[in-house]
Amino acid sequence: CSRPQKVCLCPFLPIHPLKVSTCLYIIQHPAEESRVLRTVPLLAACLPPEKCKILVGRRFSEERYPELATVCRNPNTIILYPGADATNLEEVAVRPSSPSVMIIIDGTWSQAKDIFYKNSLFRLPKQVQLKSNISSQYVIRTQPTNTCLSTLECAAVALTIMEKNKSIQETILRPLQALCSFQLQHGAQIHHSKEHLLKNGLYDKPMPKNKRKLRRMELLVNNVKI
């Protein structure tokens, strides 16, 4: 896990990489690569190297990333990104020819949105989303809403659905739970979602002057999906 011995997460990782048929391509925003408490390394430690490939960057052209372009054009590839055009993953997973490759964008919501819309390659695969209403266990980092999940949690839920194996989710989430527990024991605070803070009058930062950002906060308070 590359962490100090005192907070080593290796005992919480699977002894052998999980056997999965689905290959994940994690498209990571450069800002995530430098974060100390990022979850993608834990995800990669749970899976075989050939089943979890990480590409770091903001722009992905067909010329610079020919392998990725081939993957995006493959009809058996899907991209996990919520939206009006996205199909629930549960519906896709039950079809006879289940997807064999899934692309997940790793970054803040604004970073992920920027990567998705400014790279035409990522609009070639079928767009899917998770229907799950589970709350994030990544409590040491603030999420926009109560049901926003970290990249590791998204991958855990998605792989469980695609592989039809509930133990996958439990195995992948175990090191995340240990990470949060260690951090809380060493002085970290639980981070409630922005939605929770706004609804309970606990949001102590200045409200944004930008009308678009202010409107997004109003939607969070009023339980409108954004």
Give the gist of this structure.
With 226 residues, the chain is an alpha/beta fold. It contains 9 helices and 6 strands, in the order βααβαββαβαβαααα. The longest helix has 20 residues, at 166-185.
The overall strand count is 6
CATH architecture of the largest domain: 3-Layer(aba) Sandwich
- Classify the helix fraction into a percent range: 25-40%
Which class of secondary structure composition applies to the elements? alpha/beta
Strand order across the biggest sheet?
A: 2-1-5-3-6-4
Question: For this structure, what is the CATH class of the largest domain?
Answer: Alpha Beta
At the fold tier of CATH, the topology name of the largest domain is Alpha/beta knot
Largest sheet: 6 strands, parallel
| Total tally of structural domains | 2
Secondary-structure element order, N to C: EHHEHEEHEHEHHHH
EC number: 2.5.1.25
Protein name: tRNA-uridine aminocarboxypropyltransferase
Organism: Columbina picui (Picui ground-dove)
Family: Belongs to the TDD superfamily. DTWD2 family.
Question: Could you please describe the fold and organization of this structure?
Answer:
With 226 residues, this protein is α/β, with parallel strands linked by helices. The protein has two domains: 5-185, Alpha/beta knot (3-Layer(aba) Sandwich); 192-222, no CATH class. 37% of the residues lie in helices and 12% in strands. The protein is built from nine helices and six strands. It has a six-stranded parallel sheet with strand order 2-1-5-3-6-4, with helices on both faces. α6 packs antiparallel against α7. It holds the Pfam family DTW. One of its GO terms (molecular function) is tRNA-uridine aminocarboxypropyltransferase activity. Its EC number is 2.5.1.25.
